């Protein structure tokens, strides 16, 4: 296939990718610096700032809290979101059109507004403690991903296979687990990964819901940056990037990277 | 505005796979040649090479004596009709048809006149302002045709243009395409996998297989005198029986197949000459089933009988292998019967051995 | 039973959205209508305040600039990517996805290191002798825009790659077979067909910038306050929840209006949907 591209466009693309990757390289470099201030290129190589992350109790705590919240809220979103996505695809006729819009709402409503409203009504109004309030916020944050990704997978699934299984004597609930779910497996994995990473990285909802004693990693990073400007944050950032790499490796293994382009 | 297309010794690769090997083809002025074959035979690749969407690894393509091989697609001036029409969905029918003229700097009233005239010819004047999305398959096909014709290209190429239409429309459209092509006298290349379509529309047909042209001839010749076993099977000679001559007797030869089956073949029925070793190729209607075992023919035991409308078709086991034969509707025969299969010369031909 | 299967299965998710999204957000809206000074008083207060009007206008400006720059860069890059063969294309897509999956905080923090007073850019400029006093780059509108573009370009690239790949190859070949040069094909076929998708991408970037918090907080600070940071300040520093609710309501109305209007425009422009 001959597809000529103008050399200027190629030059622009190269610059864009330097722009995209460069800052992250700088973060990695700064994390390895042996200095007490942030600098690049690193002066002296050291892993001391990585050790420093775990030396600071606040980081240890928030890393664990962030992981817990990501797992729990993703799990809840999958448990309530998969049946909803299934219903929206399988029983489209009996459900009103607005229902699918309803599950997109958390995307339409700015996260900041959602976070603030949850603070006002749920955390303050109903005195819900910080941890469950964060779970609620993050579940709403990731629910649209579950519904959208699972719906996309189900759109490619031929429900005749389900009917075939039922006609062969398989009860409906069992059929769902033996026939439908295995066929949207890649969708479930994708949804899980997207939700998990979205939750881990969230600022706008958590910023309102975290409080004394319980915080998430990104909020802790924000707080730390305001007081200290040492390479610790660069090291934490590298940890988060490592998580991203791990996630992409999982995606590559299970779905192929072309999936990410969709 | 009609020119001769010459494709000389082109080869093409997709990555490491060779898809065309040393292919040569000439299409005369005003001639319509079809490239016929199963998917993967190289017919579409040939078309894409001529259109300029692919570059051959070797060989040359010329049109009216001008070398096209390295010319970018948009400078080749070839009218193309695509399988799925490839109409621009954001332009009206008239704008689609006028697109090529616009690229040629033809604007204003002249463009409008030519577009209107072309739409008139394909019977779409009433739909000029519609978007392609609002048209039926047949209408889209007409727009695609008009769009390719209006630039008055020296060469027209069709890439399976009718495969998305239903059977009835397909037949109407192919007549229409042939009439327009004849009227303009435009040199044309027509790619299809449908034998009936290729035979009905073309001056000559190239039957392709694995990147090579197996035979290039008029439909009549291909149908009656295939040059090799592949083409013979392709045009419906289901029974291929290798034989060798054991006795020549003036106007007749006696030949023997595997299992000691002997047949006497009059030379006049097979073009006046039968080589010492040959393959007898017969369509199913070229082997007639008879329960009269005294007749000369291939002894056989009948298998499954199926009803074809004009005759019964029988599966038959013979010493020369499994064959397919026909028998009259007046006399259905039962499986297991011993019969003779008598060659019908008009439905049989002779091929060189493989 | 069968008749209600759809309802039964979608009820838990519906309840969660209604209880924890619709009702709380509605309550936030209600706060702004039920003040002692009359139903629309907080909005008058908002638009009468010079500071707040400035913040709103600045937010619109920054978001428009971010959207425009991301759109141009993202579309052109996506065009090159969509024309790149095989493995190189995968690498480019990975390079675009990676920043997207890396959190907002990390990506904004990177620009803090680059643009800081003793950041890489200033140190480089000084060591090159271009200047001897560091430039104030942080806490300017420019730094916020740069970091926001950095935030949204990957999203724009991926959206545009998707849009461009959905344009059938046949159309591009048809165009060139009819004599259109690559530039003419780009302008007359590719661009018009991509426009609806570009609008959708632009809406994502605009609403994302309009409601951003972490980036303006880190790179804009108090000096370059935007709607998100102002709302946080009102809610968590000043504890004026009526004011914060008002800002929240304005953000919601603004983003939803933009989404509705622009998706309608996109739909009208999309001939494929006919």
- Beta-strand content of chain B: 35-45%
Q: Helix coverage percent of residues of chain B?
A: 10-25%
At the fold tier of CATH, the topology name of chain C is MetI-like fold
Strand count of chain B = 20
CATH-level-4 superfamily name of chain C: MetI-like
Integer average pLDDT of chain C: 91
Report the end-to-end length of chain C measured between terminal Cα atoms: 38 Å
Uncertain residue ranges of chain C: none
Largest sheet of chain C: none
Q: What is the largest interface, and how many residues per chain? A: A-C, 87 and 88 residues
Number of domains of chain B: 2
CATH class of the largest domain in chain B: Alpha Beta
Family (chain B): Belongs to the ABC transporter superfamily.
GO molecular function (chain B): ATP binding; ATP hydrolysis activity; transmembrane transporter activity
Organism (chain B): Devosia enhydra
Pfam family, one (chain B): TOBE_2
Overview features:
heterotrimer, A: 262 residues, mainly alpha, MetI-like fold, globular, C: 274 residues, 79% helix, 0% strand, cell membrane (chain C), transmembrane (chain C), MetI-like_sf (chain C), MetI-like (chain C), transport (chain C)
Write structural notes for this entry.
The complex is a heterotrimer of chains A (262), B (354) and C (274). Chain A is mostly helical and 262 residues long. Chain A has 13 helices and no strands. Chain A has one domain: MetI-like (MetI-like fold, Orthogonal Bundle). In chain A, helix 2 crosses helix 13, helix 7 packs antiparallel against helix 10 and helix 10 packs antiparallel against helix 13. The mean pLDDT of chain A is 88. Chain B folds into 2 domains: 228 residues, 3-Layer(aba) Sandwich (Rossmann fold), CATH 3.40.50.300; 85 residues, Nucleic acid-binding proteins (OB fold (Dihydrolipoamide Acetyltransferase, E2P), Beta Barrel), CATH 2.40.50. Chain B has 8 helices and 20 strands. In chain B, strands 6-7-8-3-9-10 form a 6-stranded mixed sheet, with helices on both faces. A 5-stranded antiparallel sheet of chain B has the order 13-12-11-14-20. Chain B has a 5-stranded antiparallel sheet with strand order 15-19-16-17-18, with no helix packed on it. In chain B, helix 2 packs parallel to helix 4. The two termini of chain B are 43 Å apart. In chain B, 43% of the residues are buried. The mean pLDDT of chain B is 92. Chain C is mainly alpha-helical. Helix content of chain C is 79%, strand content 0%. In chain C, helix 5 packs across helix 7. The radius of gyration of chain C is 23 Å and the shape is globular. Chain C starts with a helix and ends in a 5-residue tail after the last helix. The model of chain C has no long low-confidence stretch (mean pLDDT 91). Chains in contact: A-B, A-C, B-C. Chain C: This is Putative spermidine/putrescine transport system permease protein. Chain C: One of its GO terms (biological process) is transmembrane transport. Chain C: It is found in: Cell membrane. Chain C: It is a multi-pass membrane protein. Chain C: Belongs to the binding-protein-dependent transport system permease family. CysTW subfamily.
């Amino acid at each position: 296939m001959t597809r000529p591209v103008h050399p200027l466009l190629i030059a622009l693309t190269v610059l864009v990718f330097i722009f995209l990757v460069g800052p992250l390289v700088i973060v990695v470099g700064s994390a390895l610096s042996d200095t007490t201030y942030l600098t690049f290129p690193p002066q002296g190589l050291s892993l001391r700032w990585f050790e420093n992350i775990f030396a600071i109790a606040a980081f240890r705590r928030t890393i664990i809290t962030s992981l817990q919240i990501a797992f729990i809220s993703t799990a809840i979103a999958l448990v309530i979101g998969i049946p909803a996505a299934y219903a929206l695809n399988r029983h489209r006729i009996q459900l009103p059109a607005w229902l699918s819009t309803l599950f997109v709402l958390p995307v339409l409503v700015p996260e900041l507004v959602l976070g603030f409203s949850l603070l006002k009504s749920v955390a303050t109004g109903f005195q819900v403690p910080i941890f469950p309030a964060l779970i609620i916020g993050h579940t709403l944050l990731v629910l649209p991903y579950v519904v959208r990704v699972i719906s996309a997978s189900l759109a490619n699934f031929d429900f005749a296979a389900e009917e075939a299984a039922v006609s062969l004597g398989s009860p409906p609930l069992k059929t769902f687990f033996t026939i439908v779910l295995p066929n949207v497996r890649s969708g479930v994995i994708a949804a899980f990964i997207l939700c998990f990473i979205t939750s881990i990285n969230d600022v706008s909802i958590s910023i309102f819901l975290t409080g004394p004693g319980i915080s998430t990693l990104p909020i802790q990073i924000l707080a730390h940056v305001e007081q200290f400007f040492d390479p610790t944050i660069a090291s934490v950032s590298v940890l988060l990037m490592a998580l991203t790499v791990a996630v992409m490796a999982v995606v590559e293994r299970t779905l192929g990277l072309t999936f990410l382009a969709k | 505005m009609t020119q001769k297309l010459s494709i000389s010794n082109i080869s093409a690769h997709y990555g490491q796979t060779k898809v065309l090997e040393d292919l040569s083809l000439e299409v005369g002025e005003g001639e319509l040649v079809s490239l016929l074959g199963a998917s993967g035979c190289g017919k579409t690749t040939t078309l894409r090479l001529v259109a300029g969407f692919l570059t051959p690894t070797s060989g040359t393509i010329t049109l009216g004596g001008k070398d096209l091989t390295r010319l970018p697609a948009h400078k080749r001036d070839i009218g193309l009709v695509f399988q799925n029409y490839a109409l621009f969905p954001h332009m009206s029918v008239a704008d689609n048809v006028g697109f090529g003229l616009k690229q040629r700097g033809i604007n204003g009233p002249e463009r409008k006149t030519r577009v209107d005239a072309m739409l008139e010819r394909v019977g779409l004047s009433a739909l000029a302002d519609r978007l392609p999305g609002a048209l039926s398959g047949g209408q889209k096909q007409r727009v695609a045709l008009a769009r390719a014709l209006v630039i008055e290209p020296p060469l027209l190429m069709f890439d399976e243009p009718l495969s998305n239409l239903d059977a009835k429309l397909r037949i109407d459209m192919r007549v229409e395409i042939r009439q327009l092509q004849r009227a303009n006298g435009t040199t044309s290349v027509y790619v299809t996998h449908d034998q009936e379509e290729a035979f009905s529309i073309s001056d000559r047909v190239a039957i392709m297989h694995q990147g090579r042209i197996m035979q290039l001839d008029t439909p009549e010749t291909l149908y009656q005198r295939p040059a090799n076993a592949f083409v013979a099977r392709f045009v419906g000679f289901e029974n291929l029986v290798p034989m060798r001559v054991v006795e020549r007797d003036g106007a007749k030869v006696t030949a023997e197949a595997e299992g000691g089956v002997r047949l006497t073949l009059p030379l006049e029925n097979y073009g006046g000459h039968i080589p010492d070793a040959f393959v007898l190729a017969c369509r199913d209607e070229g082997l007639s089933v008879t329960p009269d075992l005294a007749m000369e023919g291939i002894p056989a035991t009948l298998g499954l009988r199926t009803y074809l409308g004009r005759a019964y078709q029988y599966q038959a086991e013979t010493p020369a292998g499994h064959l397919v034969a026909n028998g009259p509707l007046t006399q259905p025969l039962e499986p297991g019967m011993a019969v003779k299969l008598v060659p019908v010369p008009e439905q049989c031909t002779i091929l060189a051995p493989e | 039973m069968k008749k209600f299967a759809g309802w039964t299965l979608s009820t838990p998710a519906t309840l969660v959205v209604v209880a924890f999204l619709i009702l709380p957000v509605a309550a936030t809206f209600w706060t702004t209508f039920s003040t002692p000074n009359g139903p629309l008083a907080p909005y008058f207060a908002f638009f009468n305040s010079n500071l707040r009007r400035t913040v709103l206008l600045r937010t619109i400006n920054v978001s428009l600039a971010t959207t425009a720059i991301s759109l141009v860069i993202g579309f052109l890059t996506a065009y090159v990517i969509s024309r790149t063969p095989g493995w190189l294309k995968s690498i480019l897509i990975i390079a675009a996805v990676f920043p997207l999956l890396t959190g907002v905080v990390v990506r904004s923090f990177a620009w803090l290191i680059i643009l800081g007073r003793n950041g890489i850019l200033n140190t480089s400029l000084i060591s090159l002798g271009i200047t001897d006093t560091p430039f104030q780059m942080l806490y300017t509108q420019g730094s916020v825009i740069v970091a926001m573009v950095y935030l949204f370009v990957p999203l724009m690239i991926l959206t545009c790659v998707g849009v461009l790949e959905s344009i059938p190859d046949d159309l591009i070949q048809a165009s060139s077979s009819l004599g259109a040069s690559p530039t003419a094909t780009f302008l007359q076929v590719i661009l018009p067909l991509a426009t609806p998708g570009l609008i959708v991408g632009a809406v994502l970037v605009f609403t994302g910038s309009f409601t951003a918090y972490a980036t303006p907080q880190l790179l804009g600070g108090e000096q370059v306050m935007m709607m998100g940071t102002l709302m946080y300040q009102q809610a968590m520093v000043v504890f004026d929840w009526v004011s914060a609710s008002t800002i929240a309501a304005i953000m919601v109305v603004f983003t939803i209006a933009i989404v509705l209007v622009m998706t309608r425009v996109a739909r009208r422009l999309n001939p494929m949907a006919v």
